[in-house]
Amino acid sequence: MGKLDHKVAIITGAAQGIGAATAQLFIKEGAFVVLTDVQDDKGKALAKSLGDKAIYMHHDVSIRKDWEHVLKETEKLFGPVSILINNAGIVIQKSLEEYTDEDFHKLYMINQFGVYLGMMVTYPSMEKVGRGAIVNISSTSGFRGKAGLMGYNASKFAVRGMTKSAALDFASKNIRVNSVHPGFINTPMTLDHISDEYKEKAMKDTPLGRGGEPEEVAQMILFLSCDDSSFSTGSEFITDGGRLA
Question: Which UniProt keywords are given for this protein, alphabetically ordered (predicted)?
């Protein structure tokens, strides 16, 4: 028996990193998994490797029509959704002087508005099941400011607040909503889009002395998606190696 037997999950940003690790773990635990992303080659290859209980869909999380299409196809293939993992996100690291309005808007549309759309479009499907679990991936940047990351900070603080509000709104529908706050995790996003100076500082600031692995964050996401966390909603769960301690 798996912890997610017969449950249907949508995982955004699932082509690599935390999303990919979560998809692999969810399949192992018995779920039907819809992987979404804009990196089609990676997403298709991963879904194929996971077998018949997984499928990949191209999905821009900032577009409502894309969300509506993903939900419609998911219900057609696997049935109503039980779990939503709002994982898709980007980071732009620039000094304040270099930041543009376009940078800030892009971060908002993907990291914040995409999470909003995901919750609003999918919760009626969860009502059909009679219960649901939503996990929004924020960051330790949702707790404290960091130089060069104004737009990213803003979006991740917003996800934290949205999660709490949604948890209160959805409680009567038996839908739980929690946020996960990774520290520095060894993913393509952090390794390819963050400066070496910042990486070195992150390691010094982490008491465990290393970056986390996507699989470690996936375990936290699994906990919040299954009945092990049945009395947890509206809360933050931190996976940061002690960085915020």
Answer: Oxidoreductase
> What 3-state DSSP class applies to 169?
helix
* 144-170 pLDDT per residue, tens: 998 899 999 999 999 999 999 999 999
Assigned CATH for 8-239: 3.40.50.720
In the 8-state DSSP scheme, what is residue 100?
-
Closest among 182, 190, 187 to 238, alpha carbons compared: 182
Task: Catalogue the active-site residues.
Answer: 152
Q: Domains of the chain: which residue ranges?
A: 8-239
CA distance 148 to 162: 23
Region 80-87 average pLDDT? 98
Residue environment code for 41-60, b if the CB has 16+ CB neighbours within 10 A, otherwise e:
ebbbebbeebeeebbbbebb
Q: Which token pair is 216?
A: 């470690």
3-state SS, residue 191: helix
Measure the CA angle with vertex 138, ends 67 and 144; round to 5°: 145
> For residue range 8-47, what is the model confidence (pLDDT) as tens digits?
999 999 999 999 999 999 999 999 999 999 999 999 999 9
Question: In this structure, what token pair is assigned to residue 103?
Answer: 């940078």
The burial of 197, by beta-carbon neighbours within 10 Å (0-12 exposed, 13-18 middle, 19 or more buried), is given as exposed
The three-class DSSP label of residue 116 is helix
